[in-house]
Amino acid sequence: MIDYQFACSEMDVMKDQLKTSHHKSLIWFLEHSPVLTVGRSATEQDVPADIQIPVSLSNRGGKLTYHGPGQLVVYIVADLIELNLDIRQYLNILEDWITRVLKNFGIQSYASKERVGIWLQDVNTLQEQKIAAFGLRVSKGFATHGFSLNRNLDLSIYEHFTPCGLQSFGVSSLSRQNISLTFDEIVEHFLINCPKSLF
């Protein structure tokens, strides 16, 4: 469980480490204590006045995103120049990584050309819902931040704001899809399926 602002500052340290190492990227699996993060595309009007959790500004792209217990957060500090990738190619690799992991659990998920994130058809409502969200920052060839996957996150928080600015779409989790995994178990699946090209 890592404080959000500490994680942001630590990513800067990781970026400096990457510059002097032989690695192409560094990865960090964690969870955050409850926080509503405000990306560069958000405005003050996007933040609900009645929100009862800490609000933190972020230098990542996107609008509002919630982090909290039961959500796997994966931060990657990547040298896109060394990897010979543009941001779209990098995002495609991350999308494929997540959908490959979810396929291990029998979940058919997909990336959408119209909406950022990883989506599925909810087993209960058959509604299209988001199970993983992206928030990236690219500066001078280095990508930071990454993605989050809802494991057994309390989804009631999303009743108070529109995640990522997307109306008319729900938010899901592994537990909502009847998949029960611990933090260590889901991390193990991500490590086993890790795209070798990133490292």
Could you explain the architecture of this structure?
This protein is an alpha+beta fold and 199 residues long. The chain has a single domain, classed as 2-Layer Sandwich (BirA Bifunctional Protein, domain 2), CATH 3.30.930.10. The protein has helices at residues 4-19, 80-83, 87-103, 183-192; strands at residues 25-30, 35-38, 55-57, 64-67, 71-79, 109-111, 118-121, 128-139, 142-150, 170-171. The strands form two sheets. Strands 1, 5, 6, 7, 8, 9 and 10 form a seven-stranded mixed β-sheet that branches. A three-stranded mixed β-sheet has the order 3-2-4, with no helix packed on it. β7 (118-121) and β8 form a beta hairpin. The protein is globular. The model has no long low-confidence stretch (mean pLDDT 91).
Radius of gyration: 16 Å
CATH architecture call: 2-Layer Sandwich
- Give the biggest beta sheet: 7 strands, mixed
Beta content: 25-35%
Query: In which range does the helix fraction lie?
Result: 10-25%
Quaternary organisation: single chain
Please give the alpha-carbon distance between the first and last residues: 25 Å
Any idea of the CATH topology?
BirA Bifunctional Protein, domain 2
Give the H and E element order. HEEEEEHHEEEEEH
Number of domains: 1
Mean pLDDT: 91
**CATH class descriptor name:** Alpha Beta
Overall strand count: 10
- Count of helix runs: 4
Helix and strand arrangement:
Layout: H1 4-19, E1 25-30, E2 35-38, E3 55-57, E4 64-67, E5 71-79, H2 80-83, H3 87-103, E6 109-111, E7 118-121, E8 128-139, E9 142-150, E10 170-171, H4 183-192
Parallel strand pairs: 2-3, 8-10
Antiparallel strand pairs: 1-5, 2-4, 5-9, 6-7, 7-8, 8-9
